Amino acid sequence: MNDSHLLSNAVPYNQDGSPEGNNPHYRSLPHNQDAEQGLLGALLVDNRAVERVSEIVQAPHFYVPVHQRIYEAIIKMTERGQEASPVTLKNYFDEDPDLEELGGASYLAELAASVLTVVNVEDYARRLYDLFMRRELISLGEGVVNDSYSHTLDSDAEKIIETAESQLFSLAESGSGSGGFVTLRDSVVIAIEHAEKAFNADDGLTGVTSGLIDVDKKLGGFQKSDLLILAGRPSMGKTALATTWAYNAAKAYAQSGGKEGAVTAFFSLEMSADQLAGRILAIESGVSGDAIRKGTIQQSDFRSFVEASQMMSQVPLYIDDTPALSIGAVRTRARRLKRQHGLGLLVVDYLQLLRGSGSRQSSENRVLEVSEITRGLKAIAKELQIPVIALSQLSRAVEQREDKRPQLSDLRESGSIEQDADVVMFVYREEYYLARTEPEVGTDKHMDWQDKMDRAHNVGECIVAKARHGPIGGVRMHFDSNLTKFSDLEESRLSAEY
Predict the structure, then answer these.
(1) At a CB cut-off of 8 Å and minimum separation 6, what does 166 contact?
(2) Structural domains in the chain?
């Protein structure tokens, strides 16, 4: 189709998109009017072609404004079950000044008349999408340049990088047409592959290992695209358990050469990176964390430190202790780590310390903010195809009950935590509460209390209260308070689920 005939007022362009003439400093934004005209003409000739292109190209992807409106009108009419042709569209554009400049309604007829075949309509659509993406990249780049020149208190260089990276990934996700239906046949193939992987694995895992046999048996490992919530009251051991899982997964990755475990990111919004490293040093060396902090260690312990540090240096566990991160910043940094190092597991400690995109002005807004955060964490899990473990506080309602075992209704601030999560787990240590209710020594009650304390000593529970893809129930674990470490409890493998 001849541009000079249909677009008589258009500026002439060279093959590379630059205008004809002697001005080497001016470049037109990338576009292809022939492809736009060819696509619109094909749709006007055969409305069924809309089904093949509507998920690839959208109205804003056209460069010429009137082409955007023509495409939008075609889509609307076909969605209503009406025919979109030069005749039926004529009334919509009778008084359109942009179309008047191109010859009025006769321009629609010329678009349709110039079409030889609709076979290549998808090629046109992909070409237009590619050119649109190039224009958006140019705009994004100009925005980065302008923001970099602008010095404000609210926007430092790191913030500009975060914003640019977020925009870049959002652009990559938008409108590519990569989504849509998957046939049952393809889905079954994937399901069989997962089953085969579990069958061939010695431990029967399809997901990322927690390093704890009983937890892995209950969950089958941490599954890709799952959001797992680990909740508990203060001093129950949420951070200790999450740290154990994160370190075990990263350690398994290092020791297996990437065949097991995962590269792990740990967003520690409550504890500093060196405090978290100190806990891991205690776990790996077997030296009490309290002794490490106070310096009451033996000379022989330094050999354990050296061996532990050598192991820790090989473990792909990345810690980010930036306080008050937004969910957008977590998404950006997770994407970056995925791209650079192949992220396979993400842990956030803890959910209530994250910020949403808005401000916290009321309890109602806070509920909405927590909902935004949980949706954002689930989106990260699906987008990056990794399990995301988010720690969460429980409400004080637990303390008001005689039975302190947590329930789903104890999740703080938002029902969306339970709704968005694929798995909800509680960490619970009966010993913590029993130690605070000691009866008078010498009484029958004290003897009963002592029996309970003996059974609960150094025992913690991981209670799976919700599992979208599996059974619920409890797992007993050994808890070493000196090392703040959870490990397998032999007797739990012999006990029935409860």
Answers:
(1) 328, 331, 332
(2) 3-173 (1.10.860.10), 205-493 (3.40.50.300)
Contacts with 245 (C-beta within 8 Å, 6 or more apart), sequence order: 210, 211, 212, 215, 222, 347, 389
**Residue 226 pLDDT:** 92
Q: Among 24-28, 178-182, 188-192, 379-383, whose mean pLDDT is lowest? A: 178-182
pLDDT computed for residue 409 by the predictor:
81
According to DSSP, the β-strands at 227-232 and 388-393 are parallel
**Cα gap 265→158, rounded to integer Å:** 20
CB 210 within 8 A of CB 222: yes
| Residue 31: both structure tokens together | 């576009």
Compute the average pLDDT of residues 250-277: 88
- Identify the DSSP state of 496: P
CB atoms near residue 429 (< 10 Å):
22
Nearest to 288 by CA among 484, 119, 42: 484
CB of 114 closer than 8 Å to CB of 37:
yes
- 428: helix, strand or coil: strand
Residue with tokens 């740290």: 243
Q: Token pair of 153, please?
A: 């208190």
CA atoms within 13 A on the CB side of 448: 5
